Structure formats: C-alpha cells, structure tokens
Amino acid sequence: MELLGDRSARLAATLAVAIAIPVAGLFYFQFRSISALSQSSAVVLRQLSQETANGITQSLQDALKAPYINVLLRVSQAQTEPLDLSLIAPALDEGLNAQPFVDRYYVWSDLTVEHRDEVLAYDREHRDFTTDVPEAAMLVTRFKELAPQKHAISLFETTIDGRLTYFQAQLRFRFPARDKLTSFVALRVDAERLRREFFPAFIASHFNHVDGPTGFPPLTVTVVDAGGRVVYPYGGPPPTRYVDERTFALVFFDPELQRFIAPEGHKPEMWRLRTGYDNQTIPDIVAARERPQRALMAMLAGVLALGVFFVVRAAAREVRVAEMKSTFVSSVSHDLKTPLALIQLFAETLELGRLKNTERAHEYYRIINSEARKLTRLINNLLDFSRIEAGLRRYRREPGNLGELTRRVLDSLESQFKHNQFSITLHADGDVPVLIDPEAADQALENLLSNAMKYSPDNREIDVDVGREDDYGVVRVTDRGVGIPARLHRKIFRKFYRVQTDAGSGPQGTGLGLAIVDHIMRGHGGFVRVRSEPGTGSTFSLHFPLYAGETHGDETDSGDRGRAADVARSA
Ligand code: ADP
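YS: structure for the whole thing
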C-alpha cells in the first residue's frame, strides 16, 4: 500500500516538475521582456521630453532675437546717416509682419538733413513713418544717457500708459572715437501682449508638430515667467512634476551678446520652459503601464498553477484507482477462495460420513452455511457494484419496520457472531416505520456488521441501536475495534478505497462495502454517517426517512444517478 502512495506521489512530482519548469522559464522570460519594454519606454519618453524642451526653447530664442538680426542690424548706419527712409521702410514693414510681438519700430538720426533729431515711428496702425510720437523725448534722453557706455545694444523697460514696455535699440556712434550718439534704430514690445498673445500662440504652433506618445499620458509644455506666472498654457496651473526644464533669457537679441549691452550689468529676466507628462514622473508612468501586465501574468501563473495542480491530482488519482483495481482483483480471488475451500473441506468430511458426533456435524453445517453467506454477500456486493456502475441499480421501497429488519439480519448472522465469539447487544426503541427496499437495507446493515466484525480483532462487543432521530429511522452499529482516523471518514465511502495498514497486514476486502452502503442509503433518500476514533472503535449509522403511512411503496432508481456515477467515479 505504501508503494502505491509512493508511485502516485512520484508521478505527481514528475508531472509537476515537467510542467512547472518550462512554465516557470516562460514566465521568467516574459517578466524580463516586460522590464526591458519598460526600460525602452522610459528612454523614449525621456528623449521625447528632452528633444521637445530643447527644440521649443531654441525656436523661442530664435524668434525673440529675429527683430534684432532682421531689422535693427539690417538698417545700416549708411541708411540712417543721412536717413534714407525709402530703404528703411521695407525693412521695418517686413519686421512688423514677421515679428508679431513688436509693436513699433523707431529711427532717429543726428546726421541728416530732413527729420534731424526727430524720432520717427513706424507702427502696425499706420504702416508708415509718423512723427507724432509721445515717447520720443523720453527715448532720446534714455539712449543718450546710455551712450557714454559705448555699447551698441541698449535695453531698458518702463511703464507707458500703465503698461510695462520693453525698449531696445541699436546705437550708432561717431566713428572712430564713439564719443557721440549719431543715430539709432529701436523697437518696442508690450510686456502683457507678449505674455498673453505671442507666447501662447508661438508655443501652441510649435508644439502641434510634436507627436505625443501613443498609449502614454500626453506630453505637456509649460512656460513660467520670472515672477512664477504660467504664460503657457496662459493662466494654467504651474506643473508640480515635470521631466525637463530649460531656462532662457527674455531679451530681444542673442543672449551671447549680453556683455555688449548698455546698461552694463543689466540682468535679464530668466524664464523657464518645462516639459513633462501630465504631472507624472516617468518611473510612475512606466510602473502604471507595467502593473496590469504584471497582474495579468500573475493571474495567468495562478491559473496555470491551478491547472497543473488539478492535472497532477487527477493523474495521481487515476494511478491510485488503477492500483486499487489490481489489489481488488487479488482480494476478490482471496475472498472467493477461502470460503470455497472451507465449504469444500467440511462438505467432503460430512460426505465421507466419518463423523459420529452429531454436534460436531451440526457445527460443520453451520460453518458451511456461514461461509456460503459470506460468499453470497461478496457476490451480491460485486453484482450490486456493477449495477451501480452501469446506473442500473433500482430500489423497490415498501413500508417496513426498522426494528424487525435489524432483528432479521442479526438472526441470520447469529452463527457467524457465535463462531467468531462476538457478543451483540440490541437496543430497539418501539416501532420505527420506514420505506425500504428490504433486500438492499439488509445488505447495507450486513455490510456494516460484517465490517464491525472484520475490524475488531480484540474487543468483540458490538452494540446495535434502533430508534428515531429527527425525521429519520436510524440503525446504529457500534464496535470497539481498530477505528478510523477522522481525515479518512469521507474517503472510506469511495469505491475500492481501503485504509492502509502496516505492510498490508489486516483483514482482506474489496473496498466496495461502504461505497455500496452509501449508494443504498442515498437511493432511500437517507444517508450513512460514521463516528470513529482510532483505537476506541467506530459507530456507523444508517438513516432512513421515517414513513408516515400515506404511500404504499415506490420504486426509485439508483438513488440519484448523478451521485451513483459520483460514487463510482470517486476513489
Ligand atoms: P473493505 O472492508 O472491503 O475494505 P469497505 O468499503 O467495507 O471495504 O470499507 C472501507 C474501509 O473502511 C476498510 O478498508 C476499513 O479500513 C474501513 N472500515 C470500514 N468499517 C470499519 C470499522 N467498523 N472499523 C474500522 N475500519 C472500518
């Protein structure tokens, strides 16, 4: 029996290892590829953010210095000294078209005849030179003040009509001493319009060309001015989490030229451009994307493990059933041979007529009878089992009395009890009317009594109680035999199941007796119960539904067929 356990355990272990190793390998590589994918996603996200931050910052700075390069430098000293307005006008006009944030250009010259020392403005409204310039005096004064520093670029900001305004000029000096301001070309930028209109429109148009990452949170760009105000998206909340940040100087010339400007030591406003992913960090995004995949993998692993478990269990069970069947055949042969040999022996002795002692002869007849009963029980069990397996076992129930039935069975087994020195005590509590198939009920009770004898090697007392319990008539068979461990209480009702004994010693049996009892009881709408402890003995009880007297017998099929198949299947 131990060998059996070993074999099915070995099979289970082999199967488990054979399936588990490749599956574990598969999962290992799958998990690794998820991590690799996450890493490359992180690289792609980082790169996209970096490139977008660099690209937009660069474009912004190019746009901011464009009026300086394309207008202020393009209008040369030769064109302003003396003023050649027909050459200057197209440059300023193009400048206004190309740089939407510049409100107005100015020219002023001291070395000219017409418009000498007069500030001429060229703005969006007129698209021509005008001399009606309220800020003219202020401009000339400021640039003249800055001229002694001898720097070509001059920059300042002031408030005009309550609005912050930036002014920038390219100054020209008397050559080569640079001791006198001779002319300038200047521009003016409205700070609020720059923030509200230029930045949002410029970034939006550049950002539109950036392809957002598919399957990830969208890439976002934010521009924050020196005072911490969000300029893009205008008025939006400042981002708390971002991936890249670039700073840039809000000046309308190349920041590299910072040392050539007047006033010296002017500190430009530093603005910041940030790129990120919807306020999330890249590790967070990657982890969030990985999570469902990992969860799916874990779930799959769980399902697979469960599948492996069931396959292994089923395979081990099949091996066990196969092994049980083979021991069953040898048990049946043994159970057939022993009584047959005894019957033959005693019958031959009687036939030879050598027995003078009639009491001895009587004893021989009794043994023959008892062995024949054993054979009948065995064959009945086998036939019943095959009928149950085929789903053909039917019970013909009729009103009967459980006390009578018990007495009848005990009487028929009396000689066996006597021969094996068992003392039986019967307690029967009045009438217990039940609906039963007498033959099947006899068989169930006989199987219990026969087991009580078989598994009681030392204390040979058996109690049989008949009574009522709830809605059932109950027969209880109590022995003081070897008992059964609690964990096997369900298993003993499975077909072919036999409790393992050391080195296979102990009584022989087919392992069918209790499976048949269980089937019979279900066929009666009742059940069988066991209470048992190793070493103290067992109580098996048959519970038949009580009969109230309205019906007059019926026929049920094999209990419930589903259950019949169940009994037959389980082992
Ligand atoms: P069998 O007796 O032919 O082995 P059964 O189906 O009648 O088959 O019983 C199944 C197992 O239950 C037995 O092998 C035995 O170990 C255990 N068993 C049944 N009845 C008793 C009992 N009265 N005392 C101890 N063990 C029992």
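YS: worth flagging: Confidence is low (pLDDT under 50) at residues 559-571.
IM: good catch. Also Residues 192 and 433 are 104 Å apart (CA to CA).
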